[in-house]
Protein 1
Amino acid sequence: MALVYFGGEFVDDTQALIPITTHALHYGTAVFEGIRSYGDGSSAALFRPHDHYERLLRNAAWLQMKPQWDSATLTDLTVELLRRNHFLDDRYIRPLIYKTSQTIGAGLPEGEALALITQPMPRGPVLRPAVTAAWSKWRRFPAAACPAGAKITGLYVNSSMAKADVLGRGFDQAVLLNMSGDVAEGYGANIFVAHGNRITTPPIEADILGGITRDSLLQFFGDQPDVSVSTDPVSPADLLRADEVFLCGTGMEILPIRAIEGRMIGDGTGHGPLLRRAADWYRRTVSGATAAPNDWLVPV
Ligand code: PMP
């Protein structure tokens, strides 16, 4: 049992229940985030909570929500939740703002509530074992259909179906193409592609979700004098002839891809030089072993 933030207070998770008629449950009208805290048992810190909460609030605006919290308040509430639970381990925090209307019928009715829940998420090895990927048979939805960059719960049917598709065919991860046929991202992660010391990731215009991990890595690579980094459209062929391909996201951190549809990427280990540098830097940064920019780490 753990405390969660629900209905404006800290309550036992068994008490955090919503009525069956809740709008968000029927129409996918909720926004969410995935934030991580890294801790060693005696101290812990949240990684980039302000950026996650700014994104959450931007996405809430798409659903015409008028949240009463700002990113500072939401960060404070998250710290308080971890403190009250004495959670100083590696953790995943799931903030959710959902439409509470009990009226049946689509639309964007007024009224929303905030919930904060957490679950343990121990850090994996810095260099994660490389995995396989396949093209998802489902394309990433275009910005003309709905806000492509938003973490809106209803939109995650796309990710869920892409994941089920590739897992069902025996692969570990999906690469989703956008409606133009370019590479967009994974089902819950952004993608980086390296050819020698040139590294690129699809631009926001490729209908991706602008990941915070992607942003961190763009800053890291931008600081490396021997690496040229860009955000450019990536074709499926660019991916197949790359030396290195990896996914990145808050939950998965940095995940090397060793083959796509059975075709080997680079030397087939997935552990190329740019991935190794990025994974090492990322772990040191999130765990506070190396100085992070400004407000990236917020102590619990
Ligand atoms: N794309 C999608 C579809 C995602 O769900 C996520 C996870 N939030 C990402 C990319 C990576 O984003 P972030 O680095 O902010 O976790």
Protein 2
Amino acid sequence: MASIVPATWPGAAESSPTGTGDVLRPRRLRATAALRALVRETRLDPAQFILPLFVRSGQGVRVPITSMPGCAQTSVDECVRDAQAAADAGVGGVILFGIPDHKDAEGSGAWDAHGPVADAVRAIKRSVPGLLVVTDVCLCEYTDHGHCGVLVERRGRTDVDNDATIALLAREAVAHADAGADLIAPSDMMDHRVAAIRSALDAAGHTDVPIMSYAAKYASAFYGPFREAAESTPSFGDRRSYQMDPANGDEAIREVLLDVREGADILMVKPAGAYLDIIRRVKEATGLPVAAYQVSGEYAMLHAAAERGWIDLERAMLESLVAIRRAGADIILTYFAVSAARALSSGR
Ligand code: PBG
């Protein structure tokens, strides 16, 4: 790579007139907090944070998620309180994941107009109208086998049936939009689901509801704690026939370009911390708004190390978030949304 220091930069390779050494002294701009703030290139804005929430049926229910300190599965009433607290802290939005009472082979709870997600969307839009409500569209929380789509036997192997699944995802997306969701976020990684969802939304009169596609979603070990939270661990096998191989970068660009062609409005990369290069490439390849999901395992790792006194949680949290922004993400989905918003507003 060519040097980014232009040869014309005053003082380049010259010595100081006072004879005290080279005139290039980068530390000058780091001397005080005011100078550092003046030249800071990247800032975090809570309006660009989205807080994930896990919603289930019942009243007054709050079940802590042990591997994700501070996070819980809640009933709709408690979910509204969490959404209100997020809005009060300046957080831009929430993304809802549902835990249904009953699961079946096709995940029919996913398009239940009176399931926890649809109920929570309506309740939050009523009580906290300024907050963006995003819904995760996927079948894994709703299927009894825990895969992100319906299963089919083919050539001696059980597989997720792509085209049968996208029809169901489209139904789920329309149910969420009917309930009042502001933004639809499909996370299943089936081929052509963005097109299927876009045309179903349009046909249902939701032409103005944007799609935030989990466009480059990797088959990652960092989802471990989420699967406890969402009760969505596959009962057999893994997700490697639909989620991406962590070794691939060019493929991420092919995936996102397909989603752009199919009508995705916002592109998501997931996980975030181990995929900063992908965030940057997606931003450069598309110029579209890019979201990054700092996933459950990233959150759990920082908490676990901090609990042992090995790292400072607040500093590590803010550093991990600013790195995601610096890589090129506009939007960050993070379980730290509220704590980070509070830390930022207290000026730390
Ligand atoms: C699937 C989904 C997952 C996450 C968000 N949506 C899990 C998976 O693919 O197994 C992971 C989020 C996290 O780990 O925080 N619906």
